[in-house]
Structures are given as structure tokens and as C-alpha cells.
Specification:
Helix content is about 45%, strand content about 15%. It is of the alpha/beta class. Strands 7-6-5-8-9 form a five-stranded parallel beta sheet, sandwiched between helices. The protein has a four-stranded parallel beta sheet with strand order 2-1-3-4, with helices on both faces. The longest helix has 20 residues. The protein is globular, with a radius of gyration of 19 Å. It binds phosphoric acid mono(formamide)ester (CP) and norvaline (NVA).
Length: about 325
């Protein structure tokens, strides 16, 4: 398998074999890290990390992974570069492509990361756009595989706004890998029908399936994985909170949901999560709307069902695998 020189913009661009290859590579790199075996085969190379939205996991994963691989990193934060304000993405790509051996981009529309990839001449990695979050998928799949021992046949239900980056990406990943994906949300939050049709094609080939349902009981019954995400994503206006809370409250992951899913079900969340009042936004929303949690209860988040911190750790190992594979380490 040779992925050298490839961009990593969405899992739509990769076959199931290529995705599994990157998950295997990540598992191997994780094992080496635990044993203290160095993997600094990209010594002397440098990568740029562009973040037009904030981040804890993705940024730290790229930085630690690059460091472990022997590379230097330059972080461009949401405010201090010329990108998009004084300089177009096309020009930025041609400048950074001459200085760096790879570029990560987190920001808004998918077309931005695509333009960057078209003009950079070096591998470009999508660290989250409005539409997709592909590096998160590899971490989620590695976490599921570590827990259950396999991926094909696993059932995963995503509860919440299934039209956005996480719902889209999980539907793509599951349908490519022969898993059974359910989006459980009000109909207006169902993923784009065109993407659903494409994923149905993937599922036909892989033996997976796609279900869209408004019914929490049916949508979560006997599922292996229950997944949720914030109800309002980065970059969305403050005004949408009221409507989202009204619409999505019935789709909160509670202990009843986990019981319905079954004793052996696991809970995943890309994080950050609103499960208590220990955040500024959590407290603000609580005082405005009188709620103490949002997409998941603290009880589920802290329960033995929850693998969220294993999942967060796996961001680093899987991002290292993406960098290594695409840079030909
Ligand atoms: N899950 C995730 O992408 O986390 P960050 O926003 O902290 O990078
Ligand atoms: N849907 C969330 C994912 C965060 C990792 C967002 O875009 O903010």
C-alpha cells in the first residue's frame, strides 16, 4: 500500500483497504510509542498547521505526532496570519507549499481545504471543515476496533445534528467499512440525501447499512456504539442555540439510551462535550435555558460505557499514521 503524496481531505477519497491500512499503521505506531521505540523517520521535514477554528486535540495531535516523527511544526492561529484576509487560499498554498513538506488545515468550507490541496504541491490534511472531520474517523475506528476486536458488522448510532461534519464523516466511514450506521435525529437534521445515496452505494459494496430515524428507542436498540457531538458547532451563530436545544433535547444520550443499546454498548464523543457546568459556555447556556447538560448526561460521560479519553488519545496515533503514510515515512 503506497499513500505517499496523497492528500487527506475526506474518507470518500479512500478505499476500505486504504482506511484499514491507516488504522493498522496507527495501531503499530501506538505500540511503538508505548514501548519507547523511536519512529523519527521524517527528520529534517517541516509541516504547517493552519487553524481558522480553535482546537485542543487536533492541534496537539499534529504537534506531538510531528515531533515524534522528527519534524518541525509551525502553528498559524485563527487571527495572526494573512490567510483569507490579505491573501487568498490559492496564494497561501503556493507560498506554504514551497516552505513546508505538508500542511494541515482546520476551518470552514471543504472547498477551502480542496483549493489548498490543489495548489500546495505537498500533502494537505483536513483537520476539520464544516462538512468533514476525517482524522477523527480514524481515531474512532481504532477505538472501536480496540474495544470490540473488529469493525465489520458493528452497529453505530449517531445522535444529534447529523447534517454536519461528524454525522457526515461517521456515515462515510461506517458505510465504507461494512458497519451499520444509524442517524437518530429529527428529520430536518438528517444528512444530505446526495451523501446518503453515495454512502448507500458504499454500504452495498461493504455489507454495511444506513438507517435514518427519528425514533430514539428503535434507533438505539441493541447498538454497539452510541455517538454524539455538540449541538452547535464551531462557527455557527449564537442564535441557533434555542432551536437546537428544543429540537435535540429528546436525542440526548442518557443512561436509558445506553440501557436500550445494551450492557456491552460503548459511548463515544469527538469532544469537547457539554456534560456538566464546568465550562464557560456550559454555564452560560445553563443560565439562559435552565439545563445542566446537553448532548450527553454526566452519568453516561463518566460511566464505564464511555471510551472518550481512549478515543482522544487515539487522535494522536492516527494523525501520526496519516502524516507518515502520506509523507512516505
Ligand atoms: N475532536 C476534536 O477535533 O477536538 P479539537 O476541537 O479539540 O481539536
Ligand atoms: N461538530 C463539531 C466537532 C468538533 C470536533 C464542530 O464542528 O464544532
Amino acid at each position: 500500500m503506497n499513500l505517499a503524496g496523497r492528500n487527506f481531505l475526506t474518507l470518500k477519497d479512500f478505499t476500505a483497504e486504504e482506511i484499514v491500512y491507516m488504522i493498522d499503521l496507527a495501531a503499530g505506531l501506538k505500540d511503538k510509542k508505548k514501548k519507547g521505540i523511536p519512529v523519527d523517520t521524517l527528520r529534517g521535514k517541516n509541516i504547517a498547521l493552519i487553524f481558522e477554528k480553535t482546537s485542543t486535540r487536533t492541534r496537539c495531535s499534529f504537534e506531538v505526532a510531528a515531533h515524534d516523527l522528527g519534524m518541525g511544526t509551525t502553528y498559524l492561529d485563527p487571527k495572526s496570519s494573512q490567510i483569507g484576509k490579505k491573501e487568498s487560499i490559492k496564494d497561501t498554498a503556493r507560498v506554504l507549499g514551497r516552505m513546508f513538506d505538508g500542511i494541515e488545515y482546520r476551518g470552514f468550507g471543504q472547498e477551502i481545504v480542496e483549493t489548498l490541496a490543489e495548489y500546495a504541491g505537498v500533502p494537505v490534511w483536513n483537520g476539520l471543515t464544516n462538512e468533514y472531520h476525517p482524522t477523527q474517523m480514524l481515531a474512532d475506528m481504532l477505538t472501536i476496533r480496540e474495544h470490540f476486536g473488529y469493525l465489520k458488522g458493528i452497529s453505530l448510532t449517531y445522535m444529534g445534528d447529523a447534517r454536519y461534519n461528524m454525522g457526515n464523516s461517521l456515515m462515510i466511514a461506517c458505510s465504507k467499512l461494512g458497519m451499520h450506521f444509524t442517524a437518530c435525529s429529527p428529520e430536518k437534521y438528517f444528512p444530505d440525501p446526495e451523501l446518503v445515496a453515495l454512502c448507500e452505494e458504499y454500504a452495498k459494496e461493504s455489507g454495511g447499512s444506513i438507517t435514518l430515524t427519528e425514533y430514539v428507542d428503535a434507533g438505539t436498540k441493541d447498538k454497539d456504539v452510541i455517538y454524539t457531538d455538540v449541538w452547535v458547532s464551531m462557527g455557527e451563530p449564537d442564535e441557533v442555540w434555542k432551536e437546537r436545544i428544543e429540537d435535540l433535547s429528546p436525542y440526548k444520550v442518557t443512561m436509558d439510551v445506553m440501557k436500550n443499546a445494551g450492557e456491552n454498548s460503548v459511548f463515544l464523543h469527538c469532544l469537547p462535550a457539554f456534560h456538566d457546568l464546568e465550562t464557560e459556555i456550559g454555564r452560560e447556556i445553563s443560565s439562559r435555558f435552565g439545563i445542566d447538560d446537553m448532548e450527553v448526561t454526566d452519568e453516561v460521560f463518566e460511566s464505564p460505557h464511555s471510551l472518550v479519553f481512549e478515543e482522544a488519545e487515539n487522535r494522536m496515533h492516527t494523525i501520526k499514521a496519516v502524516i507518515a503514510a502520506t509523507m512516505g515515512a
